[in-house]
Specification:
Structural class: mainly beta
Order of helices and strands: HEEEEEEEEHEH
Strand content: 35-45%
Number of strands: 9
Radius of gyration: 21 Å
Largest sheet: 5 strands, antiparallel
Length: 213
Amino acid sequence: MAAAAGSGSSSSSPDVFLVAVSGQIESGQFPEFDDLYCKFCFVYGQDWVPTAGLEEGISQITSKSDAANSTLVWNFPIDITFKSTNPSGWPQIVVSVYGPDFFGNDVVRGYGAVHVPIIPGRHIRTIPMFVPESTSRLQKFTSWFTGRRPEFTDPRVVAQGEGREVTRVRSQGFVTISFNVVTKDMKKLGYEVTPSDMQNHSLVSVTEGIHNY
């Protein structure tokens, strides 16, 4: 009887799938600026729940070195695990970069967002960054003089489409992120995201699976 009960338990289908993400916000390219730091946060759908790791963080301030030319190197770690029943609302990471202006005020130097890669494995993404712009020359001068540049109250708006069509922005810089992605039980729920040349991941621990990449 005990063996039969155990067999029934092992054959039951999972109710959720897991997506584990680790990696680094590696570097940024902002030729006109120096002494910058970055913040990150994850944006995801209502069916997604973080189960481990950090949803947001802030890096150290980094400066350009002669060896790296115009590259700002952060190598700031990210590590989070989600569970969900629905791939809709797949997580995005939003990155904001800040630094001092001419008067020493802390101002935004770029916003950007990218979806966490769907396919398991290691991925590199380079995000084009942008900043909001004032709508008139007078506003531009006033914001420069007072040190109060246009910026979003909540950076998460970058990952959403609502209201973006009325926002004037300007491209400014790039940020490079490396991702290590591991999924679990997606195939059992009917979602096929694994390339044909990769075997389905069998994980005792999602965290152990990440570190195998």
